[in-house]
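hiii so my PI (J.) wants the whole complex modelled not just the main chain, which honestly fair. so below is everything: two entries, each one labled with what it is. i double checked the lines twice but i was tired so who knows lol
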Amino acid sequence: MEIQVMENILGKNDQIAAENQNLFAQKGIFVLNLMGSPGAGKTALLEKTMAALKADLRLAVIEGDLFTSKDADRIAQHNVPVIQINTSGGCHLDAAMVQKVLPKLDLEQLDLLIVENVGNLVCPAEFNVGEDEKAVVLSITEGDDKPLKYPLIFKESAISLLNKVDILPYTNFDMESAKTDIRKLHPAAKIVEVSCMTGQGLDVWYDWLRAQTKAKKKRDGGENQ
Amino acid sequence: MHEMAIAEGILDIALDYAARNDARQVQCISLLLGEMSGVETESLEFCFASLSKGTIAEKAELRLQRVPLMGRCVKCEQEIHIEGYNFICSKCGSAMELISGRELRVEYLEVD
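here's the output for the full assembly
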């Protein structure tokens, strides 16, 4: 006997992601899913971001990590609410993991929530957690061939941050080629060259985050006015 | 290794539909996998085999059907197979929207 199904394999995750998204919309919180390889500089970027934005935005961070709280400890030093999720070896965060920790955050008091995913250029791209946008951090030492080698994560990300550009002269990273490939994958993507060491380009990133957060408030109103 | 999560999703759906139809055995699970869905098929089969042990889907064959990555230009509406992940229209240079190739779907089951 043949049974017609036509169901999405990740349908359950998408359903929980939609629940998270509804909750964030009610509260008018802009949520960013921050992805990238291990060592790309996601946590360094977040540390800079916390320091720069905490005066004018109410922020919180959810830290995905395989086993440790090393990243969460770094964020906590900035006096920003941070929740740790240990995936115990799991290669990505999913919507249910995020949903489970949301009661630990005071959503009434938030404008911006950044979810730092597990370091990985493949799996996180496939699992929505309820975010408004995805962002990917690619450090130039990883090589300019990565966008086409890991296309989905760049296709899904509204903004690509090319990090560690301060050491560009010491590498063979072809900036134009990397940007061309990202644009092919996502013609409307915003691409920013940054260095978390020198601060280069970070203002562009902060402005993008501020604009997105403001737009979300305007769009959904939210109760957190 | 998100193939484990995908295999879990496939098994949940298969067992759910099999139970609703009073099936004793799942023979085959037909899957639609988009060209850009990023699934390693060998690893998916391995994960599914280990997860399905002891269930009525234990002997099920996974029938994988690839769905090509197709795009439509937002301006001139040309529809083409996307090559080299290039989502810029070859005719007019506008952005192409993805119309297929991201599928991760259970299409049908064959059961006894």
